[in-house]
Specification:
With about 150 residues, the protein is α/β, with parallel strands linked by helices. It is built from six helices and five strands. It has one domain: Rossmann fold (3-Layer(aba) Sandwich). Helix content is about 45%, strand content about 15%.
Length: about 150
Amino acid sequence: MRPWEAPLKGVLLVSHDGDLRRQVHACLSSIGIAASMVTTARKGDECLAALAKVRPRLVVLDDSINNLDGPGLLRTLHQRVPQALVVYLTTHHTLELERAVRQLGVLYYTEKPLDSSSFEKVLATVFASATKTIEESETYWRGTWGAH
């Protein structure tokens, strides 16, 4: 099987912030996602290297990463794994950024710092929607979170 034909599974977490990575790991663990299912990248180039090895079902992307910008990395991500569901985290919210990343296929966009209990609910809903087709998921998320 060629890498691009492998089934989508697991989570790719991209963030240079150790505290945020620990918080997201804790949220994933609380909804039943084992640490062994999570691949972590601290920088954009580590993310790209990880994408050569794994095909994540979910990507949690912190836009304050080193050596690549969030939207640029998002474009590359969707070229390599177009079916991946993406949760985008930002410190520097602007309406322009939100529109830009949503147009690139982000299903959920939120500002940091994260509220763990709310984020756990988001992650649970993302994984529940992962059983639907991508079109159904995108329609659901845009309807649910589009007014965000």
